[in-house]
Amino acid sequence: MFEVLRKQLPIKQALVEDWLALDAEQRRPWFAKADLRTSAALLLLEQASLRRQLLLAQDEVKQRYLNAAALKDGSINKADATLKQMLANSGFLSRPAELLDAKGYGLPQPEERKHLEQVSSERQAQLLRLSTSLDKEVRALLEPSRAKEIAAVEANVKQIGEHLRTLHKAAGGLQL
């Protein structure tokens, strides 16, 4: 994908690692200059950059979590409690029978299915709320520069996606 980018745009970087090492804001000006194929390559490269930033953030949070001083200062207590709550509430994903009050065998009966659907929907909604909350809490634990870079790369992915859809539509591409 990086070769597509190098052939179509006059970028200075010779290696994909050099391109990904740039700040998200430094890569952004190239988006408007890209054609359809190059935009697709840019999207994949930005997604790779996002994945790279998330892995760095994951390591940063893990190191902070494992640090005894961080445990004592209470900075991770809220995220830790949310994570534990998520783990406690996610057991039904691997053991759906626990959602049924009955201790029977076989397939759930029609009335049990309705109950199962309702309880499952409630638990899924709760897990989604907890996941969203945990994401915010974990991002608050990151160094400000890391959080800023992740937000910038996410904005890049969104911008390239919109640019790619616009180019695709202009080229007469299939609209779903």
Range of helix content = over 70%
State the helix count. 8
Shape, per Cα inertia axes: flat
Terminus-to-terminus distance = 25 Å
Low-confidence stretches: none
Total strands: the figure is 0
How confident overall, as mean pLDDT? 87
The helix-strand sequence is HHHHHHHH
**Structural category:** mainly alpha
- Kindly give the count of domains: 1
Our Rg estimate from Cα atoms comes to 23 Å
Q: Estimate what percentage of residues fall within beta strands.
A: under 5%
Biggest sheet architecture? none
Notes on the structure:
The longest helix is centred in the last third of the chain and has 32 residues, at 110-141. The chain has helices spanning 2-8, 16-21, 24-27, 36-66, 68-73, 77-89, 110-141, 144-170. It contains eight helices and no strands. It has one domain (2-170). By secondary structure, it is an all-alpha fold. Helix content is 72%, strand content 0%.
